[in-house]
Structure formats: structure tokens, C-alpha cells
Amino acid sequence: MQQSKTSDVQKWFPSEDGNAAKRSEFLSLIEQLIRGVDDLKHPDQVNLKGEKNREGLFYEKLISESKIPVSGRPMEDVNEELLKLLHSHPYHTKYFFTNILPMASIPGILGMLTAFMVNGNNLWDVYGPAGAEAEVKVTAMMSKLAGYDAETSGGYTTWGGQGAVYTGLRIAIAKMSPSALKEGVPGNFYAFCSEAAHYSLYKSMEATGLGSDRLIKVKTHLDHSMDTDDLRKKMREVCENGGIPVYIVATTGTTDAIGIDDVRAVRSAAEEIAGDFDLPVPHIHADSALGGFFAFFNDYDVDENALSFSPGVLGMIKAIKDKMQHLHEADSLCFDFQKLGQTPYVTSLFLVKNANDLKRIDLDPEETPYVGHRGYGDYHTGYTLECSRMASSISMYSALMAFGREGYQKLLGQFLEVNLHFREQLIRRIPQADIMNPDNHGMSTLFRIYPEGAPRFADEISGQCTVQELERNNRLNEKLFEKLGANRDKMFFGDTKKHLLAGTREGAEIPLYVSKFFVISPYTLPEHVPQIIDYLKENIEDVCRQFETVTVMK
Ligand SMILES: *Cc1c(COP(=O)(O)O)cnc(C)c1O
Q1: Ligand 1 within 6 A of CB of 200
Q2: Cα-to-centroid distance, 432 and ligand 1 (Å)
Q3: Does residue 422 register a pLDDT over 80?
Q4: Whose CA is nearest to atom 15 of ligand 1?
Q5: How many helices and strands in the chain, by DSSP H and E?
Q6: Are strands 492-496 and 514-518 parallel, antiparallel or unpaired?
Q7: Which stretches within 41-159 are classed as H helix?
Q8: In this structure, which residue's CA is closest to atom 9 in ligand 1?
Q9: What is the 3-state composition of the chain as percent helix, strand, coil, each rounded to the nearest 5?
Q10: 107-408: CATH number
Q11: Over 50: is that where the pLDDT of 554 sits?
């Protein structure tokens, strides 16, 4: 047998022929990493073990010391360096409650690994057939879940919920003015979203050249959903002044409070105003980046209750279903798998009800000399803003297959259950705290604390407080942010300085500062809630005590 020649540069690559020696070398490097992370784990705190001092000139030092080595180092040594990056990194233990930063599941990670093993380019099925196949499957699976007709819908994986909002806007512009792609965007186009919407649309308005001044913010109800009467009013104003509404983003699951816009009501408002002014109906995008996964409850039979959810969870599911069943009324939507889909970053799926909408933003064959439009290859995503694309669809496919509908229902149901326990105990045991999103059903609780005798949440939103009162309450909450933030290695809460705007007696609107408990770790269980409340209670009592002493001294 002839000995095949090897070259020194091949050592960095997986084998060509599937030989066992290379496989075991590769596997042991992977094991080194997984074991290394396991050694850093500490289930009773948030951060991984290890020292990391980010104080002082941390980043400046990195800049001055970093340079590429002349000769490369053995991969085992490099692995050790990689593991050092993870020292003291936040990890999704039972005490991780911040925003929507999930753990990557094993199926999600394995899907990524599968994609990396062939490293196809999802731009074209000639370069990345596996990614194309998974993308078509996942698009169909999620279309059916959302209530779209998978035969006529379309979609692709993209760079985040923000990418989906952006592409929705590109389609909206192209629908209203096909020539805009060549000639630029008409200056009288307007877009709408609620005050509780994600800033993705704001950025998209900048990026398309429409300008954020043409983004109209619609008022929200107390449950953070869009006030469609205000939408009607504002669309009407725009139309009366010569503007054309092209795009409405209905947020189906706001990022903080998990308020859900009623897409059906948004559509009927849009149709009514468009009809009155003899205009086409604007493109409606459901920004379901976060909340889209609640559609897994759409077919859950709450009477049968096959998964034995508690009455509280069932109540939440009913309320969620009421809104989510209208998801398919949107012209496009999004599933951020990196949020509730349990896959690694970046795995977002953009869906359009009508696949032909993608053609509106596709490139002309003449403009794509490198790929597509050949006698071979049937799947070329010339309509994406990206050129090369990762095959993140494979990770989504893996998660969908491994979790199944039931798996997602169980996981989301567990998040809801933990949150219900949290809400009940927070109110019962911490008299200084009010819940800011009591009418929202989901895994997030926003809470705000109050100094003794100060006006409470109900007073604040009545518009009858003074600026000084609201600002004083904000200052106390900021103290709590600082205290919880300094100890975030113990329990990691979120916070926001712009929850909602409360009116005042003086007329000014003041944003309310709130802390956030977001259930996102599969390791947080209802039985952990009493300790979480103990911890909060202690910290809240501390900041209140100090705050009142300072105020008395003044
Ligand atoms: C997270 C989020 C986004 C942005 O998604 P990325 O994946 O971070 O780009 C947009 N809209 C909503 C409602 C979100 O929750």
C-alpha cells in the first residue's frame, strides 16, 4: 500500500478520509473544552469560576499586549487560552434572571457543529445544500406553527430579530414603490410601531434612509400592547398631510414586559385607514422575535391539559393563545431561535406569508455574476441583505426535532410556573415592591420599589404625581440596580431605565426605572423562588434603609 503524503499544514484540519487517528485527536480537543468548562461551573452562583479583573485599564492593556504569534501554538495550549476567556463568564445557572439571554441547548450546539463540519455557504444550494435543505424544512415547520400556508410562504435565516424588522421594511418599501429600489426611497413614507416596540425599527428607518423622524410611535395600553385607536388616529394624521403609511410593526411579545399586540386588530385598523385614503394596506410585520415561540401553545388543549400544567400556568396559556392565534394575520414575522428556541447565536428566522414578497427585493440576475441563475442549483438567496450566510437553519432544525412541540411546551410552561411563584411571593413578602406588568403573561416580571409613604405605581400611572416624586422613586430604584448589579455574580437580575413614560402634574413625561426578573434558565425551579425572594428582600430593605436615612439628613 502506498503511504499517502501528508503536509504540515494539514494538522489544523479535520481528516479528508475519516481516519480514526484524526478523529480521536479532534474528539479529545473537544473533550478538553467541554471538560474545561465543566471544571469552571459553580451551580450556586451565576459566574463561572476563575479570576477576571476588568477594572482599571483592562481593555487598554489587551490592546497593547495583543499580537499574532509568529509560530502557532499547539491546539491544547490554545484551548487553555480559550478557556481563560470564559473565566468568570456569566453562566445560565438557576440564579440567572437577566433579559432574554438563554443557554444554548445540546441539540442547538450539535446542529451548529453539523453545519461547521461541512462549512457550506447558505447563499446558494450549490455551495451549501445542507443549509438550504434545513432552511426550507425549518421555514415550512415554523410557517405551519404560525398558521401560514407553507406552500405559499417563504423565509430564510438572518442576523437577528433586527434583521427581520429591517427586511420587513425593505419589502414594505418595495411593495409601495417598486421603483424605490433603483431610484431611492420616497420621502413621504412612514412606519409605525408602539412605544413598547424594540428599537430595531428605529435603526431600520435610519438605515433605509427614511430617517427616524418618519417613525411614528403609537401609544400602548397598560398591558403594553398597541392602542389601535391611537394607531388609527396617527395613520390618519399622516395621510391627511400627504404621507403614506408603508409599514406597521406589531410587537408580539415586547422585550421587557412581554406585551402582545393583537395583530388582527392592527390589521383591521390598517385596512380601514388605507381604505379611507384609497391607499394600499401597509405591510404588517409581527415582531415575534421573542414571543413567536408562544405559538407552541396555539394547539395546546387547555381542557385536556395533557402536560398537567397548574391552573395558574393554564390561565397564562389561555391569555397568550388569545393573542398569538392571530399571528398569521401578519405579512411577515420572525422567530429568534437564540431567544426562546434554545439555539446559539445567531439563529433568527424571517418568515413571509407570501414568498413572492421576497422577489420584490431580489437582485437582478445580471447583478449576481458569481452565483445562482445557472442551469444548476435551484436555491439562491439573492434577496438577503447578507451575501455569504451561515447555515444556522441546521441548528434550528436540530432543536425542533429534539424538543418537539411538547418539549417546547414543557420548557415554556416551566418558565411560566417559576414566574408565577415569583410574582405571588414578591407581592406577599416584599411590601416595598409593585409589579409593573401584572397583566402580561410570560416569563418576565418587572418590579419597582417605593420609599415608605411615597406614591405607588397606581398613582404614578394616573399622571397625578409630581416630577420630583417620580424622580425620587427612580433614584431609589437606581440604588437597587447598583446594589443588585454589584452582586450580580450571586443572582443576575435585569433592569431598565425606560420602562414606560408616566405623565406628571407638570405635564412632563418621566420614564420609570424598573428591575427585571426574567426566567430563562432551565435550572430555575419553583422551589428556588423562596431563596430568590429572601435575597431580594434583604437587598431592598438595605437600600430603603439607607435611602431614608439620607433623605432624613437632607
Ligand atoms: C430581541 C428582540 C429584537 C432584536 O433581535 P436580535 O436577534 O437581537 O437582533 C427585536 N424585537 C424584539 C421584540 C426583540 O425581543
Answers
A1: yes
A2: 32
A3: yes
A4: 255
A5: 16, 14
A6: antiparallel
A7: 58-65, 75-85, 106-118, 129-146
A8: 160
A9: 45, 15, 40
A10: 3.40.640.10
A11: no
**Cβ atoms of 188 and 244 closer than 8 Å:** yes
Q: Could you count the other beta carbons within 10 Å of the beta carbon of residue 54?
A: 7
Q: Each residue of 281-294: pLDDT tens digit?
A: 999 999 999 999 99
Residue 160 Cβ < 6 Å to ligand 1: yes
Mean pLDDT of the chain: 94
Q: How far is the CA of 288 from the centre of ligand 1 (A)?
A: 8
Report the C-alpha gap between 95 and 43 in whole angstroms.
8
pLDDT in tens, 177-225: 999 999 999 999 999 999 999 999 999 999 999 999 999 999 999 899 9
| Ligand 1 pocket residue status of 381, Cβ below 6 Å | no
Which ligand 1 atom minimizes the distance to the CA of 338? 7
Q: Which atom of ligand 1 is nearest to the CA of 288?
A: 13
Index of the ligand 1 atom closest to the CA of residue 200: 10
Please give the distance, rounded to the nearest whole angstrom, from the Cα atom of residue 160 to the centre of ligand 1. 6
Closest alpha carbon to 484 in 87, 51, 95: 95
Q: Is the pLDDT of residue 373 over 80?
A: no
Domains of the chain, by residue range, sit at: 18-91, 107-408, 412-553
| Domain at 412-553, CATH from 3.40.50.150, 3.30.450.150, 3.90.1150.10, 3.30.1330.40 | 3.90.1150.10
Q: Is the CB of 255 under 6 A from ligand 1?
A: yes
**What's the gap in Å between 291 CA and the centre of ligand 1?**
10
Ligand 1 contact, 259 CB (< 6 A) = no
Give per-residue pLDDT as tens, 104-139. Answer: 999 999 999 999 999 999 998 989 999 999 999 999
